[in-house]
Q: What sequence folds into this?
């Protein structure tokens, strides 16, 4: 089996079909599998996943990294493609990954033939040399982020490379409360064609909910590093500097009204994160005094 596509879900019925349809060509004809770890959806998420032939596991929520690592542990493919439920492979990326996986499959077969003493090693290794960049365990993929339906091209949101394809057994998500990334044991490469489309935050309500949730998780990470004092620098000046840097110096203003709102509310996220960290730290100190 070449590929395991792993996805964690919770109430993703509006997104999941699009995501699974985009990976269907890569796992068709027993070339791969789809692993979905759901955390108790109350909509049609599980039903949709099963309609695409996914192996579905329902587990209690353990945090983003732990949930994704749980999905990885269930994978049987030689390569793992980790996706969010609101992401989609564009046609160019589908084709590029298809060609890459076929090339790596041929490489693996040639390696087995080279171990066969009935085949001269030179005959096998000569073909191996025609497959470029075989010495990697992870692949970086550029991601297009959409906000209110618009592709955000500036302000640090493009090309937004993500390490999403990696060899099984060579990559796991780092143990972070939020903004978790894959850590791989070995070299990486960048794909030459195609993008991952991130259909994020189609409405302002979606983004505000995201800001509230992620700022709480970010605050937990700040508090874990030590006691947090009330700081005008962190709550006011740092968010202001973040907005100015991303909106003006990184040309976020070129993304129109959507860019303005995105960078404005991202600055709010920074402010909320440090304000919540102070609040959590104060509550923790009060509990210790009791």
A:
């Amino acid at each position: 089996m070449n590929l395991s596509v792993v996805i964690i879900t919770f109430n993703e019925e509006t997104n999941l079909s699009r995501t699974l349809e985009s990976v269907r060509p890569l796992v068709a004809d027993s070339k791969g599998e789809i692993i979905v770890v759901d955390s108790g959806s109350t909509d049609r998420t599980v039903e949709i996943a099963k309609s695409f032939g996914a192996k579905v596991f329902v587990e209690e929520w353990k945090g983003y990294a732990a949930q994704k690592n749980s999905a990885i542990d269930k994978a049987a493919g030689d390569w793992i493609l980790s996706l969010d439920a609101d992401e989609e492979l564009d046609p160019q990326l589908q084709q590029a990954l298809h060609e890459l996986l076929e090339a790596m499959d041929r490489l693996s077969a040639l390696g087995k033939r080279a171990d066969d003493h009935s085949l001269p090693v030179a005959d096998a290794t000569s073909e191996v040399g025609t497959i470029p960049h075989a010495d990697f365990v992870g692949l970086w993929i550029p991601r297009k982020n959409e906000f209110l339906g618009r592709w955000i091209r500036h302000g640090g949101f493009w090309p937004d490379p993500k390490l999403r394809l990696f060899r099984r057994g060579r990559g796991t998500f780092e143990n972070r409360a939020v903004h978790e990334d894959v850590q791989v044991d070995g070299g990486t490469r960048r794909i030459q064609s195609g993008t991952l489309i991130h259909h994020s935050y189609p409405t302002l309500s979606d983004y505000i909910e995201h800001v509230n949730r992620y700022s709480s998780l970010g605050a937990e990470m700040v508090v874990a590093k030590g006691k947090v004092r009330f700081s005008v620098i962190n709550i006011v000046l740092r968010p202001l500097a973040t907005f100015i840097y991303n909106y003006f110096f990184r040309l976020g203003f070129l993304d129109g009204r959507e860019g303005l709102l995105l960078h404005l509310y991202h600055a709010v996220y920074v402010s909320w994160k440090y304000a919540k960290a102070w609040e959590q730290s104060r509550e923790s100190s009060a509990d210790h005094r009791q």
